């Protein structure tokens, strides 16, 4: 089932999410719905807060980037094959020189800005079977993980922008929170919630 994606301005996007256990109700269905929702919106990542749930769960599938010819053949192969579920993730290390990449977010449609992040990360997480892993990632995969990880920490990519950039996009963000935007996937806007 395709779920509505929560738009910028909803308080759930600013909450630090809580850990979950294997007893989480209807977990398999939730996971299935989140993947379906992400693919329907042509996303490469989706975090539970983006569907209104303040839990430490996010998905990453970088295969759409594999079509981009700015990457080497080896990088394209790696991006095409990378699909992962992260539960209760914790980034334990970030290293290297920060680099800029133009990021966007399904909760903030039509806004793209350069964000600086470190290129190498180490993450402890549980997979969809609640099996523990500790892995290191780099490059674009690390960046997508960092972006989604920020969601479960209550941080949006727009929080990482300079105050000047924030002022320049203020009107766009306001329109998104009011639902004044054309998008081709289901969204839930903060203004809609208040009317009920």
TrEMBL record:
<keyword id="KW-0408">Iron</keyword>
<keyword id="KW-0648">Protein biosynthesis</keyword>
<dbReference type="GO" id="GO:0006412">
    <property type="term" value="P:translation"/>
</dbReference>
<protein>
    <recommendedName>
        <fullName>Peptide deformylase</fullName>
        <ecNumber>3.5.1.88</ecNumber>
    </recommendedName>
</protein>
<keyword id="KW-0378">Hydrolase</keyword>
<feature type="binding site">
    <location>
        <position position="105"/>
    </location>
    <ligand>
        <name>Fe cation</name>
    </ligand>
</feature>
<dbReference type="Pfam" id="PF01327">
    <property type="entry name" value="Pep_deformylase"/>
</dbReference>
<dbReference type="InterPro" id="IPR036821">
    <property type="entry name" value="Peptide_deformylase_sf"/>
</dbReference>
<feature type="binding site">
    <location>
        <position position="151"/>
    </location>
    <ligand>
        <name>Fe cation</name>
    </ligand>
</feature>
<dbReference type="InterPro" id="IPR023635">
    <property type="entry name" value="Peptide_deformylase"/>
</dbReference>
<feature type="binding site">
    <location>
        <position position="147"/>
    </location>
    <ligand>
        <name>Fe cation</name>
    </ligand>
</feature>
<feature type="active site">
    <location>
        <position position="148"/>
    </location>
</feature>
<comment type="similarity">
    <text>Belongs to the polypeptide deformylase family.</text>
</comment>
<dbReference type="GO" id="GO:0042586">
    <property type="term" value="F:peptide deformylase activity"/>
</dbReference>
<comment type="function">
    <text>Removes the formyl group from the N-terminal Met of newly synthesized proteins. Requires at least a dipeptide for an efficient rate of reaction. N-terminal L-methionine is a prerequisite for activity but the enzyme has broad specificity at other positions.</text>
</comment>
<keyword id="KW-0479">Metal-binding</keyword>
<dbReference type="GO" id="GO:0046872">
    <property type="term" value="F:metal ion binding"/>
</dbReference>
């Amino acid at each position: 089932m395709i779920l509505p994606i929560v738009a910028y301005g909803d308080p759930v996007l600013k909450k630090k999410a809580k850990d979950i256990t294997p007893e989480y109700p209807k977990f398999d269905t939730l996971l299935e719905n989140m993947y379906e929702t992400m693919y329907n919106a042509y996303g490469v990542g989706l975090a539970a807060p983006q569907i209104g749930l303040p839990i430490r769960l996010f998905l990453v599938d970088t295969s759409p980037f594999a079509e981009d010819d700015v990457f080497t053949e080896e990088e394209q192969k790696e991006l095409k094959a990378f699909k992962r579920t992260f539960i209760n993730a914790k980034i334990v290390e970030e290293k290297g020189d920060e680099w800029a990449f133009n990021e966007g977010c399904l909760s903030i449609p039509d806004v793209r800005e350069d964000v600086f992040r470190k290129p190498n990360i180490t993450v402890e997480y549980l997979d969809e079977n609640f099996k523990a892993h500790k892995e290191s990632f780099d490059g674009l995969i690390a960046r997508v993980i960092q972006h989604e990880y920020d969601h479960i920490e209550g941080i949006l990519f727009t929080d990482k922008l300079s105050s000047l950039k924030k002022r320049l996009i203020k009107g766009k963000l306001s329109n998104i929170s009011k639902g004044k935007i054309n998008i081709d996937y289901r969204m839930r806007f903060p203004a809609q919630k208040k009317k009920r």
